[in-house]
Amino acid sequence: MTARNLYLKFVEKNVQGTIELYWENAPVTCETIWNALAKPVRMPAIHAMFAGPEIMTGLPPEAQTFDPLSIPAENQTCFPVAGEVLWFYQAKNLMKGMTDEFWEIGMFYGNGGRIFGPLGWTPCNIFGRMTEGLDAVAEACRSIRIEGMQTVEIGRVA
User: Fold this and answer.
1) Domain residue extents for the chain
2) pLDDT means per 10 residues in the chain (158 residues)?
3) CA atoms within 13 A on the CB side of 124
4) What is the full DSSP assignment across 26-51?
């Protein structure tokens, strides 16, 4: 069987990396995200505020094809390594003053990151790791801090 991997691409910079999914350790998360990305999606990516070397992007409505509460806690950590990709969901009104719902995919482009936010430590499902193209993607990720939000595309590797 051909490996089912994803890619993450910085659209304007034409920089791309391949994400190997952690099918054995996060099977439900992998299958759910895989199915949601039947068509590639593009969305703005921002740099994390609290987590260190991480970019985050929302999963757009057209890819919100599942019940986010159906994804169990699996392969969770607060200390991902460079290249690891996480799934995070926050329901509306979970945090005081935050009425929005968050469907997020995050990627740590360097070591030393931590999943820590306004509510404190937040273990998240780690469902893959960028195994090809990380150096170039990491440079693009760092540029968000200076240049601001950038468009990323995430989809299935053909």
Assistant:
1) 6-156
2) 89 97 98 97 92 93 96 97 95 71 93 86 96 97 94 96
3) 31
4) SHHHHHHHHHHTSS-EEEEEEE-SSS
Q: Cβ distance 132 to 17 under 8 Å?
A: yes
Is 20 exposed, middle or buried (CB count within 10 Å of its CB: 0-12, 13-18, 19+)? middle
Burial zone of 138 (CB within 10 Å; 0-12 exposed, 13-18 middle, 19+ buried): buried
Its CATH architecture, for the domain 6-156, is Beta Barrel (2.40)
Sign of the C-alpha dihedral computed for residues 149, 113, 105 and 92 taken in this order: negative
**What is d(CA 51, CA 117) in angstroms, rounded to the nearest whole number?**
7
Q: Look at residue 109 and give its three-state secondary structure.
A: coil
